Amino acid sequence: MSALLLLLGACRGDVAQRYYEEGLSLMEEGDAPQALERLRKAADHARTDSLRVAVYSEMGQLLFAEGLQEQALVAFRQAHDADCRLGDTVGLICDLRDIGNVYRTREADDSCRIFFEEALRLTEMSGNREQRLEVGSQLAGYHLWHGHYEEARRLLLPALQEMPDNAGLRFMAADLYRHTGPQDSAHYYCRSLLGEEAVVHRQMGHKWLAELLLRDGRTDEAARHLEQYELLTDTLQQEIDTEALRRTNALYDYTRRARQNAHLQTRLVLAIATVCVLVSLLLAALFWFSRRRMYYRLKVQQLERLLDEYRNRDEQVADRQQQILTQSPICRRIMQLLGDSAPKPLTDEEWHILRDTIGKTHPQFFRRLGEFQRLSPHEIRISLLIKAGIGPADIAKLTAHSKQSVSSTRSRLYEKTFGQKGTPAQWDEFILSL
Asked: Helices in 127-218 by DSSP H: which ranges?
C-alpha cells in the first residue's frame, strides 16, 4: 500500500513538472491566459516546496506583467511561504523584493518600504553583495520617487560604482543629479540615456536634457531635444495602445482585470507644465532685453506651438481610450442587448466586466470619481453606462428603472457632488471628463 502511494506521488510530481514547463513555453509565446492556467495546475499538483517556489514566482511575475496586482501579490506570498519552509535566504530576498514591487505599483508606500528594507537586511546577513546592491538600488528608487534625495544617493552610488553600465541605475542617477546637482553629472547621465534600447529611457533623457539646457539659456539645443521627446512620446503611446488592446481581447474570456500603465498621461501633464513655465520665462526676458525682442518672440511662438500640439495629443489619447472602450467585448454585448425587442438588464457578471474594462481603459476614472463623492451601487452603474456612451433611455432599460428615475438620479448626483442644482446633462458631462 505504501509503495502504491509513493508511485502515485511520483506520478503527480511528474504531472506538476509537465504543467510548469508548458506554462513557461506559453509565456514565451505571449499567451498569458493559457500560461496562467497551466501554472495554476502545476501549483495544484506540486509535491515539493522547491517546485512550488518556482511555479508561484513565475505566476506572480506573469500576473504582475498583466496588471493583476492583487493576484500577483497572493502568488508572491505563496512563494515566500514555501521559501520560509525551505529556509532559502536567497529565495526569501527575491520574494520580498517582488512583494515590495507590487505594493509600489499600488501606491502603498509604507508597505513597499518595509518589504524592501527587510530584503536589504537579509542581504546584509547573508553577505550576498550582488543581491545587496540590487535591493539597495530598488530601495533607492523608492526614496528618489518620494524626494528623499540624500537617502537615495546613499543607496544608489555603491550600486552605480559596481554596475556603471546598468541602464536602470543610470536612469535613476540622471533623475537624482538633475534635482540635486552637480549639473555636469546630470548632463552626463542624461546624455548616456539617449542611446538606450528602452524607449522610456531615451524619452526621459531628451526631456531632462531640454530642462537642463533651458536653465543654461541654450534654447536652440533644448528645442531639438523637445522635438525628439515628442517623437518618442508618440512611439511609446503607440506601444501602450497596442498592448492595451491585446490585453482586453486576450483576458475577456477569463473575466480578469488587467490594469494599464497610465504614467504617460502624467508625463504629458508635467511636460505641459514645463512648457508653460518656459513661456513665462521667455515673456519676462522680452521685457528686460528689448534689443533681442524679435529673437525671443520667435522662441515663444515655437514653444506655444509645442504646447498646442501637446494639448491636441492629450485629446487624441482620450479619444483612443474611448475608442478602445467602445470596441471592447462588453460594449458590443450591451449594443446586442439594446438591439433586442425586449432588452434585459445587465447581469451581475456583466456589470463586473464593464467595471473592469472601464478601469483598464480609463485607469484614473474611479480614483477621480471617489475624490468627489461616495456613490451607491446603483449610482455607480448609471455612471459606468454614461462613461460607456449609453443614452438615458437605454440606461433605463439596462438598469430596470424608468427614464424619469435615471434623470432624477443624475440631477441628484450633480447636486450632491457640487453643492448646487444641475441638469442631468451636466452630470453626464462631468463623468465623460474623468
From this structure: 129-145, 149-162, 167-180, 183-192, 199-215
Phi/psi zone of residue 203: left (φ > 0), alpha (ψ -120 to 50 degrees), beta? alpha
Residue 170 has pLDDT above 50, yes or no: yes
Within 10 angstroms of residue 96's Cβ, the number of other Cβ atoms is: 24
Please state, for a pLDDT cut of 90, what percent of the chain lies above it: 8
Cell of 77: 506570498
Is residue 260 pLDDT above 70, yes or no? no
Q: C-alpha dihedral over 122, 127, 128, 133, to 10 degrees?
A: 80
Task: Say if residues 313 and 268 touch (Cβ distance below 8 Å).
Answer: yes
Between CA 132 and CA 136 the distance in angstroms is: 6
Under 8 Å between Cβ of 330 and 226: no
Asked if 117 and 140 touch (Cβ cutoff 8 Å), the reply is no
Q: Smallest Cα–Cα separation from 122: which of 158, 88, 156, 150? A: 88
Q: Report residue 5's pLDDT band, with 50, 70 and 90 as the boundaries.
A: very low
Place of cell 508635467: 270
What pLDDT is recorded for position 257? 33
If we measure between CA atoms, which residue out of 375, 367, 352 comes closest to residue 434? 367
> What end-to-end distance do the CA atoms of the chain give, in Å?
65
8 Å CB contact between 122 and 114: no
**DSSP 8-state class, residue 182:** -
Q: What is the pLDDT of residues 305-360, one digit of tens each?
A: 766 665 676 677 777 877 888 888 989 888 888 888 777 888 889 899 988 988 88
